[in-house]
């Protein structure tokens, strides 16, 4: 009976039709986050006020909306892209029920490695004049490779020592940053080949718009979203986080899944580091200090559950976007900078509280549903 | 007394305020009482010693004893007073033990006595002992009985839960039998005997099931286990299983049945022994190995070991089959299983699930097993226990598993769901699956099994054919009384020397 082709079978009659696309869309958490983003955007463009801008060519002045002006949106997109990419990696880790505190340090180490390489083959370095045809791809690969390697080391530590990921990544957080510090001797590296900065990451599309970081962010989000939904490993990630013991009982390679997830977390830090290098054209061992908290916050606001089993790539992106919009709002609304940490912290707590409320309500609905079912 | 799951422990916990009753009440000294917490019950004079030892192994004996009310002086722990009080408590129950010792280092017997001391410490007038001797040696049990005698002379009322018949008749004045959460009978111990109690405990009509699979011809031997042992869990377990056969495993809780199933499934790194699948010796070091050999385990604890609550029920069903090489498809492999359940070596990074095929597989099993769910996408947690269990079973069926290890497959299910699972097991065996069914429900074991394997204290106490396995006999093997302790020799426990083992059924 199992040998029949799938198309010859009649689907079970006991299954009602799938709920309509709209009712499903309403129930998805990302819809709510998107609503928050739009709401914040509307509030900021309404109350943000406007700015007098003098046109360089004609010399005439005209007013633009502070929030909606291209420079601001571009900055927002660029800032979001670093965090969103890393938050997607963190979301993968968090879905398995783990945590990665070392993203900021991996970001730093991989930026520093890339920076030293680019400096050497830049206009002022020893290898000046090397063909950008191989220098640029090599720099990209170096950033990503260092990131993935650091992540894999995290994963190996967690899998082999069977220690809680919090402890391992707390250790590697210090180690990776220390390595970066020693390597650079606390000095900043600049002067990269123009082909890497202006030619790649800071590639200008129209006026002052730099679409490359945003394109990379969107690409990573789409790939990660598809991966979680369509790829076997993606399914396993949810299973391991949802119930690790059950996953082991179903014969899943739990340790291998974990290893991959941490390597991916490191890889996303490497991608973010690469964008940062190209955008700012410099790096030092201070890069990415404290990023781990923003990254985890973005993942959590985006709906990743620290107890595992829940989270999405799109949610991570929206979570990072919300944090950046709030940062932006503090500037635009001319709130004292010193309040920014308090506000971000409050938003995190609020997001988690709402999520918790939602879970409680859903559980209530479930039990009601269970009771109504005829025996 | 009562079978596993009859409700003895639950009743005890309600009396001691650990659980709250849904309805009804009880009276203590003629007064209606409602306890909101174990502390309430303790103040009212009810002490309990739980079946599972409950203490903090990292604290000292004295700290454990006084944990409920640590003596304080000016807000600071008064250590001297605590030690003195602990000594006094221990003296009350006649236990000799160093109060400074770390609790985790004591023997099971000492711990048990200290637990009782803790319960009695508050001046308990009613003491509930939930299977206090299940983990004790004979000498320790002896001391415990003496202690119970002393407490009794002091006027303490004792509720003693046990499976051991001799103890009941030695210690108790009256005995109450529970069955399926209901009160069956209360009578003085001198008006009954062991057979009478067994009858009261089982007391269910066995003819409820109509298994058709037991008359079928059995196929070739699928699984043979020879002298499987794991330190402190079970010793020298040997049995065999043929295609189409249901081997029921009976025994008390803690007899080592679940542990054997776990070891077979590669979840016990300490297990040693020989396992043969289809006559070939196999090594099983992890569940992946076991699955590759065609084994599937439905764990005892559905919540912990079976379901992934937040994933959809469809995804739960297909969880164990995503690594099967597929026959066709864009990316080379996918959800559809080939005839051979051989596992692929490595989980590749980009193996894509064909969601369309997955839906077909899921809906086929939903129809075949009559799963009731809102949709395939409904989270597993929203399903009833019976439907969850069906899906966990289906997880292995979808993978075309040859040997099913079912650990308490009907635990916590209502009568209708139980009947469905029974029907399913019978159907599977009829279709040639080999099934090892661990169950604490004797009628279930007796009705569905071709043979019954009884385990006691980590050893195979005996293997009986269907005709030999009467409730009384199985119970006697389980409790280790009435019959001589020598295990019934099982043919396959002989070392394999080329000749195929003779039939047992």
Key traits:
heterodimer, A: 375 residues, mainly alpha, ABC transporter involved in vitamin B12 uptake, BtuC, 2 domains, two-stranded antiparallel sheet, 14 helices, 67% helix, globular, disordered N terminus, disordered C terminus, B: 505 residues, alpha/beta, Rossmann fold, 3 domains, 17 helices, 33% helix
Decide which structural class fits the backbone of chain A. mainly alpha
**Poorly predicted runs of 5 or more residues of chain B:** 326-346, 482-505
Question: Could you describe the largest sheet of chain B, including whether it forms a barrel?
Answer: 6 strands, mixed
* CATH-level-2 architecture of the largest domain in chain B: 3-Layer(aba) Sandwich
Mean pLDDT of chain A: 86
Task: Kindly describe this structure.
- The complex is a heterodimer of chains A (375) and B (505).
- Chain A is an all-alpha fold and 375 residues long.
- Chain A folds into 2 domains: 74-332, Orthogonal Bundle (ABC transporter involved in vitamin B12 uptake, BtuC); 339-369.
- Chain A contains 14 helices and 2 strands.
- Chain A has helices at 21-27, 29-47, 70-95, 103-120, 132-161, 165-184, 197-201, 212-230, 232-242, 244-249, 254-280, 291-301, 313-332, 340-372, and strands spanning 50-54, 61-65.
- In chain A, a hairpin with a 6-residue loop joins strand 1 and strand 2.
- Chain B folds into 3 domains: 8-202, Rossmann fold (3-Layer(aba) Sandwich); 206-294 and 402-505, 3-Layer(aba) Sandwich (Rossmann fold); 307-400, no CATH class.
- By secondary structure, chain B is α/β, with parallel strands linked by helices.
- In chain B, the strands form 6 sheets. Chain B has a 6-stranded mixed beta sheet, sandwiched between helices.
- Chain B has helices at 8-15, 38-43, 61-65, 79-93, 108-121, 138-153, 165-171, 194-202, 257-264, 287-292, 302-306, 313-318, 355-369, 385-398, 415-430, 442-448, 471-479, and strands at residues 26-28, 31-33, 46-49, 72-73, 76-77, 126-130, 157-161, 174-179, 182-188, 221-230, 234-242, 246-251, 272-277, 280-282, 295-298, 403-407, 434-438, 451-456, 459-465.
- Chain B contains 17 helices and 19 strands.
- In chain B, helix 4 (79-93) crosses helix 5 (108-121), helix 13 packs across helix 14 (385-398) and helix 14 packs parallel to helix 15.
- The two termini of chain B are 33 Å apart.
- Residues 326-346 and 482-505 of chain B have low confidence and may be disordered.
- Chains A and B meet through helix 9, helix 10, helix 11 and helix 14 of A and helix 10, helix 11 and helix 13 of B.
